[in-house]
Specification:
The protein has 286 residues and is α+β, with helices and mostly antiparallel strands. The chain folds into 2 domains: 129 residues, Orthogonal Bundle (Muramoyl-pentapeptide Carboxypeptidase, domain 1), CATH 1.10.101.10; 123 residues, Glucose Permease (Domain IIA). It is built from 7 helices and 12 strands. The strands form 3 sheets. Strands 3, 5, 6, 7, 9, 11 and 12 form a 7-stranded antiparallel sheet that branches. The longest helix is centred in the N-terminal third of the chain and has 15 residues. 40% of the residues are buried.
């Protein structure tokens, strides 16, 4: 057996034996704190809502800068020292276009986790944040006005949506980047670290709704429509071997791994969307 085939087999076996657990959503209040500290040049990690060493060290640096007790604890005194930006927690006021601050950052974090990322999580409510919020409200069938009031915030505090369908792995490779925060942005799928040219198969039976080059970073993209308004996405392909409208079964070859679009190297970006909302594919992979 060729060395490359042996390597790919070992990677697949390891991936299946050590199936990665789904990433848990962090706390929006911690994400807001991370955004606040990042804006002051004190935090350099991912806006993930998880209170880790990086966040604690950033708090200590801020406390030292402001002449506070340096204990790494984010208490009332430290929050007051952050000024007007940290004045409102999410839910203490209606959040709408043109606002900025702690509650806006928490809102952006939640909207992204619920499947409607928009760009940078920066605590500034602009056009893209408003559009993502509007789409989320319409998805939840609540008043779609682009304003985060009590009903919207209550809905966002519920668990993020999940796929009602199970999927097989679309390529024999391990997983690199997962669904969730990446820097100050949000990654809407999982990346399989496959070789260029490796075959990509349909992860579930369905009908191809799109098979072509696309703008927006996906490059060569195949989208398959499944039951319950679920769609699977296969991006950055070097080659597409199916056409729009074609019916495919699970395991049917639909293309080959590539690096087209916004990609730093060969891999397969795999997404699952439920009624348009990006959901974490990992819990659905079998």
């Amino acid at each position: 057996m060729p060395l490359r085939a042996i390597t790919a087999l070992l990677v697949l076996v390891a991936a299946l034996a050590l199936a990665p657990a789904a990433e848990a959503m962090g706390r929006p209040s911690v994400a807001a704190l991370q955004v606040t500290l990042r804006a002051r040049g004190l935090y350099y990690g991912t806006i993930d809502g998880i209170r880790g060493p990086g966040t604690t060290n950033a708090i200590r640096r801020f406390q030292r800068r402001r002449g506070l007790v340096v204990d790494g604890i984010f208490g009332p005194q430290t929050r007051r020292a952050l000024g007007r930006y940290a004045r409102y927690s999410l839910g203490q006021r209606m959040v709408t276009d043109g606002m900025h601050g702690w509650d806006v950052a928490a809102l952006q974090f939640l909207v992204a986790w619920h499947g409607f990322p928009f760009g940078t999580i920066d605590g500034n409510f602009g056009i893209r944040t408003g559009a993502a919020l509007f789409r989320y409200q319409r998805w939840r069938r609540i008043g779609a006005d682009g304003v985060a009031g009590p009903t919207t915030i209550r809905a966002l505090r519920s668990p993020p949506p999940r796929s009602p369908l199970a999927f097989r792995r679309p390529v024999g490779a391990g997983i690199g980047d997962r669904f969730g925060p990446r820097g100050d942005r949000f990654h809407t799928g999982v990346d399989f670290t496959a070789w260029r040219g490796d075959p990509v198969v349909a992860a579930r039976s369905g009908r191809v709704s799109l098979a072509r080059w696309t703008a927006g970073g996906y490059g060569n993209l195949v989208v398959i429509r499944h039951r319950y308004r679920v769609r699977s996405y296969y991006a950055h392909l070097s080659r597409i071997t199916v056409g729009a409208g074609q019916r495919v079964r699970a395991g049917t070859r639909i293309g080959r791994v590539g690096s087209t679009g916004n990609s730093t190297g060969p891999h397969l970006h795999f997404e699952v969307r439920v009624r348009g909302a990006a959901v974490n594919p990992l819990p659905a992979l079998r």
